[in-house]
Amino acid sequence: MTSSAGSSCTSTPRQKQRRSSRLSCHTPGRDSRVLSALGDFQALPLEIFQMVLNYLSVKDISMLSMVSKTISSRLINYISTSSGTRRLLLQDFHNPELPGRKEGASILEHYRSLGLLLKRCTLLLPTRDRLKYVHKVLSGVSCFKLNGCASPLHCLGLQCYGVFLQILTAGWDELECHRVFNFLWELSNLARKVQTVVSSKPGSARRLELRIRLYCRGVLLPPGSHRSDSAFWLTRILKPWPMVNQARLLYIIFGPVSSLDGHVVWQKMIEGPTDETSLKGLADAIKLLYGTEAREWTADDVISLVDELSVLPQEWLMENNARLLLLSGNSICFTFLASKAVNGRAVELARLMVFMALVCEKDLYCMDWAVKMMQKVCKVFSTPWERNNFLQCLENTFAHMLMDMLQAVLAGERDEEDSGFLNLFHLVNAQANFHKEILYLAMGSSSSS
């Protein structure tokens, strides 16, 4: 028994030689499979392989990454090298040409291709590991950080970061995109920064407001995004905050800014009538949240947001309210007006309707739109008395506004542009055209009957 046990535990020199031979045959087989995955590149040393990559475009390298897992891992290593970083992380973000010109477009296209390259190289990694790797690659680019650039208004860095992330995350499911947002939110310390601007007096943290605006618009809401993607990211930005803070944040991101220094202009809506350009960003954001893409927002949510928006930093001029509603589209406009009708706010509704007619006259919209909107709103009232009371308020508002404007003109209250007389001229025409459309409607229906 002892001899047998000893023979089973002790290898002879011949047995050791056979086992060694089997091991030596196995290892080259495994290496050959690895080498075969490299294709024709298996003949090149790693240094030469990386030198070849320097002659390929980013799109070509991206295509190459899909050949095999082995090549993809080599490319990941290459991206992390100093030569790969110099080659791929272009930082010519301060070219004097604006985005859309040749130079600006080319660097944006470069980072779009780079996003696709890293998307393909990290395809097999979990989302958390992908984000860590991407952050490691991009962490050296200061212009990708919220406070990283000394001249943010003349920098394409955040826009490049935005198109990079747009391509990287395209097709990811909602849970993965939540992780991306949380990762960026924590990385940029956005929660604390947003808390600072929404809890302080509007305009008291102008530089921080500007930084948050540029970061959100450039990185999270880059131009050219699909509506569903924009709705998702804008919802993530706004939803953690109370409604009043949501309105503040919406104005910071999409409100009018100074053409001189890019800072948010908080007094724009209360100092005088504004133009469509100043309101277009806010109107587009409201349409986005009211649309079918923003599943987490109800009509009441959006109406409350518009209400909060119209008192920032103080109550807006009614003409600016009316212009914002017109730009926001028929659906949100009707819903907003109908809510006032349902809540018995006939006087406020009448004033808003008159200013809508004035905006239609000034901005050359068809006046029959305003009349048809009034018709729809009249159907919301539950009793004939409520409807007639609203129509009486409407006519009274026209009369009172005309008298106020006329008195101002007769009193000689004029500015350089003679805006008082011009407003009176527009309001008289607005009233005439508004009632003309009502007469057309009434006479048309009476003749048809």
TrEMBL record:
The gene coding this protein: Fbxo47
Signal sequence, start to end: none
PROSITE patterns: FBOX
Domain F-box: 38-88
Stated name of the protein: FBX47 protein
Region (Disordered): 1-28
Annotated transmembrane regions: none
PANTHER family named among the record's database cross-references: F-BOX ONLY PROTEIN 47
Feature: compositional bias, Polar residues: 1-14
Pfam entry (one): F-box
InterPro entries listed in its UniProt record: ARM_FBXO47, F-box-like_dom_sf, F-box_dom, FBXO47
